[in-house]
Predict the 3D structure of the following.
Amino acid sequence: MRGKVWSASRLGVGLALAVWASLFWFILFADRTSFYFASRTTWLAPVGAIFLTIAMVGRLASARVDHPDPPSGTHLGTVLLLIAPALLIMLFPPVTLGSYAVAKRSTSIKGAYVSVTGRDLSKGDLSLVDLFGLRYTGDLGKLAPRAGSTSSFTGFVSRDSSNGADEFMLNRFMISCCPGDAVNVQVRVVGAPPGQFEQDDWVRVTGSIYPVGEDVIVDASQVEQVPRPKHPYLNSS
Amino acid sequence: MADAAVSVAPSTRSESGASSSPSSRRKVWAWASLAVVALLPISYFAGALTRAALANFVVVFSSLLLQAVPLVMMGAFVAAIIGTFVPASAFERIGRLPEPLQIPVAGLAGFAFPVCECGSVPVARRLVDRGLIPSAAVTFMLAAPILNPIVLVSTSIAYRGRDILWPMVLGRVGLGFVAAVVVGWVVGGRDRSLFLRASASASTHDCGCSDDHGATGCGHANCSHHGPRPRWQTFFDYFAGDFAFMGRFLIFGAAVAAALQTLLPQSILGSVANTPVVSLVAMMALAFALSLCSESDAFVAASFVQFGVGPQLAFLVFGPMMDAKLAFLYNATFSKGFLRTVLLVVGAVTLVGTLWIEVLV
């Protein structure tokens, strides 16, 4: 009677589970959850890490069988297919939605969440989340009394054909579960130093705000390049 | 003796997804999947895809995957518990109910199981393996991602503070349940043995042994030379096996969804938002393309405020039952024609139901 031997297919799946478990632990420990999850769904990262780790340990612990399948190209291909995306995410630096997505994502959507602001907007610094909420309720007109007041916004640069040399659009994506459902929030910046900022540069703009119809224009008094924020997407909570 | 869960076999398809008798079709599928994955870097280096487009694809693809994989694992965990520890008699009892009653009971069971649409597919497959009639298993599979408590709470949160809160929550529950039951009735006449694809069925070699049973099977008619596996090993056969089986299709579906989001401007939908029927179909198509999890899709639907109650509801009912990633999962799990049936029936019920609700609200 033959003893148990290692099963190549079970070891392959164990390896794939190990890679995926490592990916989730890596995302957690490298503090990268904000690149892939909204604040509402961040809990999925530790859940994924724990479940995948349990499955991996159990799979490897039961990988010795009486009659293993011979290794085949199909098994190898499947394991490679399972592992490839995890390695892709783990090995490459995290990228975020940028100016390319601006053209693909709706800006005409008024917003998503009534409750994103809920504070007194007649004073204090306005944020892009505030503007998002006002667009949602169709209340951008309420900003009229604040025309000419100063606010600061941080986002990335995009340009379209309507922009003059000293203009650009400042954008930030709002996500509710993940970048897959991102909605763009943008303001038009005028009076910026011409030619100084490229597409996708992250900048902080300070200037006077003017609501015009569905748009908000910022007459910039200061534009400075900043590093990409630790939380590149806006969250509704 | 069917009561003894330990006597019920572990998953017997090969871990890497190969069936008991791997066909050339399966090999073609596996290599085609690899080719699709390889196509992106090739397109990039050939100049057909810009760096920005590739980055956009990677962001959407990775975020959809990272969100779905934990939910798939949760579903696989529940499925493994059912497969390992729940005695077959539990399902036999449901199976003894009159068939017209089995289907709604299975649908209502969705209230008790917090599984999303990715996780409900392996659960349904396991239920069929454990003796539930296919129509009841399908009804559960389609209803659970909509009726489960987590989804109801997330839908309530997404629409909190809006006057359409209750039409959205109750409409989603009601329409989702009706659509699931109707699909269950439509597929009710199918033979159990023809219901699951051979590669998805775990019933071929219920010997309880510790062999792979992948490409070759154990080669013994009665498997009497094997002792039963410890229950924990059986559990992990199910648990890890579902990851390998579902993972391939999830990756493929996420890639398709990401490609659509990268290449298709969503602003196009804005122009159809005010056209009756077309706006419903458009939101159903968007739900199909985005392939979002039912536990978070309400937040997305709520953001489409230029669409009325009907189209938003269509998004929330149709998406958890039929989207790009599910299409791959259904095709891999169920027999030929199942995907078409679900598409047509769920589409028709959603369309009629949301039109009716839009008139009412």
Remarks:
- Residues 1-22, 201-211, 213-226 of chain B have pLDDT under 50 and may be disordered.
